[in-house]
Amino acid sequence: QVLLVESGGGSVQPGGSLRLSCVASGFTFDRYAMNWVRQAPGKGLEWVSTIDSLDSKTTYPDSVKGRFTISRDNAKNILYLQMNNLKPEDAAVYYCDVLQYWGQGTQVAVSA
Question: CA–CA separation, 35 vs 52, rounded Å?
Answer without folding.
Answer: 9
